[in-house]
Amino acid sequence: MTERRTERPLVIESIETPDGDRCVDIFRRADNTYGFEVYRRDLEDPSGWFPIGRHRFTNYESEDEARAAARQKIGWLP
Questions:
Q1: How many CB atoms lie within 10 A of CB 52?
Q2: What angle do CA 20, 23, 29 make, to 5 degrees?
Q3: Could you tell me which of 69, 72, 42 has the C-alpha nearest to residue 57?
Q4: How high is the pLDDT of residue 20?
Q5: Around 72, how many Cα atoms within 13 Å sit in the side-chain half-sphere?
Q6: Rounded CA separation 27/41 (Å)
Q7: N or C: which end of the chain has fewer CB within 10 A?
Q8: CB 24 within 8 A of CB 31
Q9: What was the pLDDT predicted at 13?
């Protein structure tokens, strides 16, 4: 049996809300495309962060494009 291994994206920056319950990761994939995703966590739940958008499936040609799209779509992002 051949195991298929997918490389995880390299997170360039993780931007968290002041209260610590949401964050946006800007990342680069192994194929040199970029993306972002929004996550949330419940501080009382030790399970960690959960993706709450489907933004991670969109590819951008540059980090700047990914950041601009994130700013446009995520209202709290500075």
A1: 12
A2: 150
A3: 69
A4: 86
A5: 7
A6: 19
A7: N
A8: no
A9: 97
Phi-psi sector, 41: left (phi>0), alpha (psi -120 to 50), beta: beta
What does DSSP say about strands 34-40 and 10-16: parallel, antiparallel, or unpaired? unpaired
- Predicted confidence (pLDDT) at residue 12 exceeds the cutoff of 60: yes
pTM, rounded to two decimals: 0.84
Q: Whole-angstrom Cα distance, residue 18 to residue 9?
A: 25
Structure tokens at 59: 């590819």
CA distances from 44 to 27, 63, 70 (A): 27, 33, 27
At 1, list the tokens: 């049996």
Whether 56 and 70 have beta carbons less than 8 Å apart is answered as no
